[in-house]
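WARN retry 2 of 3 for item q-0093 after timeout on previous attempt; input resubmitted unchanged.
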Amino acid sequence: MNLLELDIDQPEFTVIEKLILREMIDKYEQYMRQGRHFEGSGVARAIQITYKRLKGDFEDTQPTHWGSL
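OK item q-0093 returned
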């Protein structure tokens, strides 16, 4: 999922859910501009989980390891 092309204007999303996703994407972009790639990766994963859960198709198949945090 390319976060910069993520379509958050889904009809099933409430205005608040769209606002939350937009703010999370803004934070991701801020971290990436600052070169803070570890923080950006964490926010990116949180966005993916949130988006997929809101869409109703969440399945966590990516295990978290200390090294990937």
